[in-house]
Write a structure and sequence with these properties.
The complex is a heterodimer of chains A (718) and B (345). By secondary structure, chain A is mainly alpha-helical. Helices cover 74% and strands 4% of the residues of chain A. In chain A, helix 7 packs antiparallel against helix 8 (178-193), helix 12 (262-286) runs antiparallel to helix 15 (316-336) and helix 27 (626-660) runs antiparallel to helix 29 (682-714). The chains are: A mainly alpha (718), B alpha/beta (345). Chains A and B meet through helix 13 and helix 14 of A and helix 4, strand 6, helix 5 and helix 7 of B.
């Protein structure tokens, strides 16, 4: 009895696990149960029961409710979809002026609104795109096709790549100095000579529209949330779900509302990129010392002056970090949004992956990654740059970068002009290297892939078979073998032990939603893949992080590596694994592991490096050796932070598992992919996305509660 | 003690933190017992504060952390609203002011200096000082020329175009002082302005503060947790504990007759000769006595004149500002103050 009182938590855990396994063994698998099938299908199969909810019939296979709960929310996706269609097509028809046919037309309100939004966003994208690579659509939008036919000279010429490159280099130099300038030069020249200029600029044009809109939206919503508790409380759950929902899932409803194309991609990017901006604005404004606010008030600021002259400038750094986040999300969306028609690098990458042309995919992937790293470094440099005093400088010195840019523009124009004479019969390479005329290494990479397959076919195949047969299949079967009651006991029990009754109900509620949806089995498969990824990533990440944290240089190095890897859009990770392992579950899992190892490593290094040096000195004076220091001092203190890293690892792993559906897995992701090609898939896609988000939120709740408690116990201010 | 036309007047001011504190105060019919309030989940910040500050006076509010001194200051500058009670600024009732009137009041009559300096990181020294002027709507050129004046006043010439991050703590606080004085306010609030500074810089800044005040003659509320600082700067000191003003009096009276045990703890270790003026220890004047030719002012601090008085063989006359004799002081008494009394206590 004494020992139980001494370690109450440990015994609670042991008891919980005993009950869990007891339930697993006590409840038999029903005879008619087939692994892997959605619980509620809308096609008729023998042995189905059906129920009716507000006119929607849901058919499902009935089991013992201890084994699987009937999908009582099966109507929800259909209902969401129907209401979306109703809003779009039938709700509140009104008269609107249609400039194309020059008369009033009756149209439902929402349809009109979405059309107007789509139209204006599309115009902006085309406009910026044509400034970058030339075209006539903007002119057409202002005038008409007839007018263009009569005036064939009227065309936006597009900026030669030399000038864009020079501008980027000068801006990089101004923001951060030589190093970044050289990097941006290499990146831009690479993009150009490899013939990726046009798709890169297409991608850039849609980022240049989506990022500013997200910034403005995020900033204003952030300010509103800062000012009003009600707004904050209303936004908070939305933000949580948006941050954990796979970006894939939002595509489907956007497709329904806005159709397919660049505008729809930009809109969905805005939806995904706004939440981090809101959070960082809020963080920045909350972080301002109250005395600065009081100083503003005592200076006689009214509310407006206080916000724009005191608060926002003071929170400048956090807000600019928000801009950085927005740009990063936009780039990662560049590939995903290609599913609904975003032109550019992402589109090329998807096409190449679809045709299994790994070489081409790799080239596009490298370009996206270069742009991502470049924009990331530039925006971070902007955030960290302090304003300098320039009142004492003369005009030439103050404006030297601008003047320098004007000079390069002139040189670029002259070069392009001469280029048009000398390179007459071919292409003007000084203006733009056409898409298929650049250097291409695709052949080389493809041959490399073939070589790898020829040489390592047997070892790879043996490894593959072993992993799938001896590790993955049994693990998947074990997950699917869990009766639903046992799952609930485990999840809610863990919630109770960690965070008390409240936490238990929160995670229980989240689980219940998934259980009532028609995709419980798919969710289990998702969970199993994520679990496998998280376990492997955590082991690798924590080990690597611990080793690197022992030394200042190696920890700086590994953090820089993490930074760069994190900026790569998630799709890029699929390319090398497909090179090595082809189209299998193994590829997905390895991509998951590589991707999810980043946060595990980063948080481990950060956690270990942030331990106060005095504690290590105290340890040294107590005579600890290295191992003792790591296990008795470092780990216990850094543990809460490392747990937050694991939390991120889970989110990353889930994202990648869902994206892995592109290669072909049998989880929720596959259904999201299916919903994408289904006209009536909008509701499905959304609910599936919410299910994935809830899986992440269950772990998020448990881990954050634990980390907060532990931090408080350790006396860190949280 | 009532003052004619006080600049600041507080009449039983309460500040209670918690949900719906007005009701709590009403339920207890104005009787605030911190224990009962704490049990109910309320924190008493200021408990029945009533005092007045006259024009040109320095009132130092002294207390340890959590004593409510900063809260009291924020009630009077209305950075927080007092829960109950009345506060008058130049006869205007502060709590009744509308938002616009309050902004006007702050733009013209109040200045405040903060413990952590609270400078705007994106503005230069000059721009920081010009900030309240520009907020008021003053033209840029006018506000800059005024700011240059203020820079000279606080002795920061040559650093006009530095950013706060490039300045030391003492220099930053000079900027804070200049900013708070730029609109030429009548009332000057200082919230532990020197607490974040090193001891040597702190002393320098205290002297600077006294120099400024000798020419500016503002009405000042100065918050500190340092009793020595309070003694050095104050015309009167209010000592606070748990939101209650334990004693409000001149430094000399507080040292000579501490009102409560709590106040006594502070005064015990204070060397009296550094605090007390001759006036507070002199004897009744006695026309018959044979006096020395040397005279001392009644306002002189004992320490500063002790050596000269001890050099005299006879008693010394004490004179007021118009050179009238108001009392005498005997060298033996000085010796007793310097060495005797403290030990015997």
């Amino acid at each position: 009895m004494n020992i139980i009182n001494q370690y109450p938590k440990t015994f609670q855990w042991i008891f919980l696990i005993l009950v869990f396994f007891g339930l697993c063994f006590a409840i038999d698998v029903p005879e008619n149960y087939k692994f892997i099938r959605a619980q509620a299908e809308h096609s008729k199969v023998a042995g189905q029961t059906e129920f009716n909810f507000i006119g929607i019939t849901v058919r499902y296979i009935e089991y013992n409710f201890l084994w699987r709960i009937p999908p009582l929310l099966g109507w929800l996706p259909i209902w969401v979809n129907d209401s979306m269609f109703f809003l779009l097509n039938d709700w509140l028809p009104m008269e609107f002026w249609d400039p194309d046919v020059e008369k009033y037309k009756t149209r439902p309100l929402i349809l009109q609104i979405t059309r107007v939004i789509s139209g204006s966003i599309l115009f902006l994208i085309e406009f910026i795109r044509e400034i970058l690579i030339g075209g006539i659509k903007t002119i057409v939008a202002i005038t008409s096709w007839d007018w263009i036919d009569e005036n064939p000279w009227a065309e936006l010429p597009g900026i030669p790549w030399t000038i864009v490159t020079a501008g980027t280099v000068i801006l990089s130099y101004k923001l951060s100095g030589k190093g970044l300038a050289i990097f941006s030069l290499i990146a831009m020249v690479y993009i150009s000579i490899f013939g990726q200029w046009e798709p890169s600029m297409q991608t850039l044009s849609f980022i240049l529209v989506a990022a500013p809109v997200s910034f403005i939206l995020g900033l204003s919503l952030g300010i509103m949330a800062y000012k009003s508790k009600t707004v904050e409380k209303a936004l908070y759950p939305l933000l949580l779900v948006m941050q954990t929902m796979p970006q894939y899932a939002v595509l489907v409803p956007a497709m329904v509302l806005f159709g397919i194309g660049d505008h729809s991609a930009a809109i969905i990017t805005i939806v995904v990129a706004t939440p981090p901006m809101i959070l960082l604005t809020l963080l920045g404004l909350r972080g301002i010392s109250p005395e600065v606010i009081e100083a503003g008030k005592m200076s006689g600021c009214n509310d407006f002056q206080l916000m724009f002259k005191v608060l926002i400038p003071t929170a400048r750094r956090d807000i600019l970090i928000g801009v950085n986040q927005v740009i990063m999300v936009c780039l990662s969306m560049a590939v995903i949004a290609a599913f609904i028609g975003a032109k550019g690098l992402g589109w090329n990458l998807l096409l190449a992956l679809n045709r299994l042309n790994i070489g081409l995919a790799l080239e596009a992937g490298i370009c996206i990654s270069l742009i991502a790293v470049l924009l990331d470094k530039m925006s971070l440099a902007w955030a960290n740059k302090q304003t300098d005093y320039f009142g004492n400088l003369n005009f030439m010195k103050r404006r030297k970068y601008e003047l320098f840019f004007v000079v390069t523009v002139l040189i670029g124009l002259v070069l392009t002009y001469f280029g048009s004479f000398y390179l007459k019969d071919g292409y003007n390479y000084l203006y733009e290297v056409p898409h298929n005329k650049g250097i291409s290494t695709a052949e080389f990479w493809n041959r490399g892939v073939d070589w790898i397959w020829d040489t390592f076919f047997y070892p790879l195949k043996i490894f593959n078979t072993w992993l799938i047969q001896d590790v993955l299949q049994p693990m998947r079967a074990a997950y699917l073998r869990m009766p639903i009651v046992a799952t609930f006991v485990l999840v809610m029990g863990a919630g109770y032990i960690i965070g008390g009754i409240r936490s238990a109900f929160v995670v229980g509620g989240l689980t219940l939603f998934i259980a009532l949806s028609p995709w419980w089995d798919r969710a289990l498969v998702t969970a199993y893949m994520a679990t496998f990824g998280v376990i492997a990533s955590s082991i690798i990440g924590i080990t690597m992080g611990t080793l690197c944290a022992q030394n200042t240089y190696s920890s700086k190095f590994i953090l820089a590596v993490c930074d760069i890897f994190q900026t790569f859009p998630s799709f890029v990770y699929l390319i090398p694994v497909m090179m090595l392992f082809g189209v299998t579950d193994t590829s997905v899992l390895i991509a998951v592991i590589v991707y999810a190892t980043i946060p595990a490593t980063r948080y481990t290094v950060e956690g270990l490096r942030s331990i106060p040096p005095a504690l290590n000195d105290a340890g040294a004076m107590s005579g600890v050796n290295n191992l003792q220091r790591i296990f008795k001092i470092d780990f216990p203190l850094a543990f809460p932070h490392i747990m937050l890293g694991i939390n991120q690892t889970i989110v990353f792993a889930l994202f990648m598992v869902i994206i892995g559906a592109f290669i072909g897995t049998e989880d929720l992701g596959q259904y999201i992919l299916k919903a994408l090609s289904d006209l009536k898939g909008g509701g499905k896609g959304l609910i599936l996305g919410i299910c994935v988000a809830f899986i992440a939120l269950i772990f998020d709740n448990l881990i954050k509660t634990y980390a907060d408690k532990r931090k408080k116990e350790l006396g860190y201010v949280s | 003690m009532t003052i004619e036309n006080p600049v600041i007047k507080c009449d039983s001011v309460y500040k209670i933190f918690g949900a719906n504190p007005e009701k709590m105060l009403e339920n207890n019919s104005g009787n605030v017992d911190p224990k009962i309030f704490q049990e109910a989940g309320y924190i008493v910040g200021v408990n029945n504060a009533s005092f007045e500050v006259s024009k040109g006076e320095i009132l130092v509010v002294m207390g340890l952390s959590g004593s409510g001194k900063s809260t009291l200051l924020r009630c009077i500058s209305r950075l927080t609203d007092a829960t109950s009670g009345k506060i008058y600024i130049d006869g205007q009732e502060l709590l009744a002011l509308k938002n616009k009137e309050l902004i006007e009041l702050r733009r013209n009559k109040m200045g405040m200096v903060f413990q952590s300096f609270a400078l705007l990181p994106h503005k230069t020294v000059l721009e920081n000082i010009a900030f309240p002027l520009q907020i008021k709507g003053m033209k840029t050129t006018d506000s800059i020329s005024k700011s240059i004046e203020m820079v000279k006043l606080v002795g920061l010439e040559g650093r006009e175009n530095y950013f706060p991050r490039e300045l030391s703590g003492g220099q930053q606080q000079r900027v804070g002082i200049a900013r708070s004085l730029a609109v030429e306010p009548d009332i000057w609030f200082l919230d532990e302005p020197f607490s974040a500074l090193d001891p040597l810089i702190r002393k320098e800044m205290q002297d600077e503060f006294l120099r400024l005040q000798s020419s500016l003659k503002k009405t000042i509320m100065f918050v500190t947790h340092d009793f020595d600082e309070a003694l050095k700067l104050a015309d009167r000191i209010a000592i606070m504990k748990d939101g209650i003003i334990e004693q409000l009096d001149t430094p000399a009276n507080i040292v000579l007759s501490p009102a409560t045990e709590y106040v006594k703890k502070f005064t015990q270790e204070v060397p009296r000769e550094k605090v007390l003026k001759i006036e507070s220890v002199m004897d009744q004047k006695d026309e018959g006595r044979n006096l020395s030719d040397f005279t001392v002012s009644k306002d002189a601090i004992i320490e500063t004149v002790a050596e000269k008085i001890l050099g005299q063989e006879k008693s010394v006359a004490v004179v007021d500002n118009d050179n009238n004799k108001v009392g005498i002081i005997n060298p033996t008494k000085i010796i007793r103050i310097l060495f005797g009394e403290k030990k015997s206590e």
